[in-house]
Design brief:
Elements (H helix, E strand, L loop, with lengths): L6 H18 L4 H8 L3 H8 L7 H10 L5 H14 L14 H12 L2 E6 L10 H10 L7 H15 L9 E7 H5 L5 H15 L4 E6 L13 E5 L8 E4 L6 E3 L2 H17 L3 H14 L2
Parallel strand pairs: 1-2, 2-3
Antiparallel strand pairs: 1-4, 4-5, 5-6
Length: about 290
């Protein structure tokens, strides 16, 4: 199966492999930093995939770690070269916050996405009119036309992940309130619900509705997205949306907490078939 690549994923993989080689060589961060004439924090960022690594630095590190296998050397140098390529989201850099750009890079390389949304339709499942109404309704921001168009274009580009040859697998739990909140008006919401129904029949998409009748929610910590990355060595990523644009986290204990929350939400929500029935009935009420 070919790997879906993004610069952030490449940096993470390259950094993880260089960390493994450093530990195998029995060297500390301080020792490597001294040999490179940089701060230990710089080496740490390289190994965590937080910053890019120049090919000449990769060669230096491989020499330092006494890596002589030519296939290993060439593979890591090629990975460093690929990591410097620009993703599609870079063209919108001036309009997007860095945490969101980082998230887009990871989403582009993910194989699966689990999301809980208590207020709005998940971004991957939004129609253009629904997204536009959301942008126009954001009270905290005064988006100019250029910024609004960029955000619309990003949403459209993101949706392509669901239709690629090896599509992103999406599990979405949405609150019943999402089906009833008339974002953009009744017609826009009805079209959005029709689109949700259409998407729910794709084999790679599962949508469940958390009904009001479920009572107290199994989770009240707000919306979140869990991304599953393609390689076992890649830690899953948690993205939390907030008014400042959001942040993503990778600590195992944080991931585990939100995985438990998602499983509880799925268990409480209506099954996919009953969820489709609720979406259908709600859309009829808007006709």
């Amino acid at each position: 199966m070919p790997t879906r690549k993004s610069p952030t994923l490449r940096n993470r993989r390259l950094g993880a492999e260089l960390r493994r080689l450093r530990e195998q060589a029995g060297m500390t961060l301080d020792q490597v930093a001294a040999a490179m004439d940089v701060a230990p924090s710089t080496v740490s960022r390289m190994e965590n995939g937080r910053s890019g690594i120049r090919t000449r630095d990769v060669r230096l590190l491989l020499d330092l770690y006494q890596v002589t296998d030519e296939a290993t050397r060439q593979g890591l140098i090629l990975l460093a070269e690929q990591a410097r390529k620009r993703g599609w989201w870079v063209r919108y850099g001036n309009q997007l916050e860095k945490p969101y750009r980082d998230y887009l890079s990871l989403e582009a390389g993910a194989v699966a996405c689990r999301t809980y949304q208590p207020q709005v339709v998940p971004g991957l499942l939004q129609t253009e009119d629904y997204t536009r109404a959301l942008i126009e309704g954001f009270g905290l921001y005064d988006y100019g036309e250029e910024e609004a168009q960029a955000l619309l274009a990003v949403r459209q580009q993101r949706r392509k992940a669901l239709d690629r040859p090896e599509p992103l697998r999406l599990w979405a739990v949405i609150d019943e309130a999402v089906l009833r909140r008339e974002i953009g008006g009744r017609a826009v919401l009805r079209d959005q619900l029709d689109y949700l129904l259409e998407c729910s029949h794709q084999t790679n998409i599962e949508i469940q509705v958390l009904p009001f009748s479920a009572g107290a929610p199994a989770w009240n910590g707000g919306p979140f997205i869990l991304l599953e990355l393609p390689e076992p060595a890649d830690l899953d990523v948690l993205f939390l949306e907030n008014a400042a644009g959001g942040l993503y986290l990778e600590e195992p204990d944080e991931i585990e907490l939100y995985e438990k929350a998602f499983n509880l939400l799925r268990a409480t929500a209506l099954p996919p078939k009953e969820s489709r029935e609720m979406i259908t009935e709600t859309a009829k009420d808007l006709a």
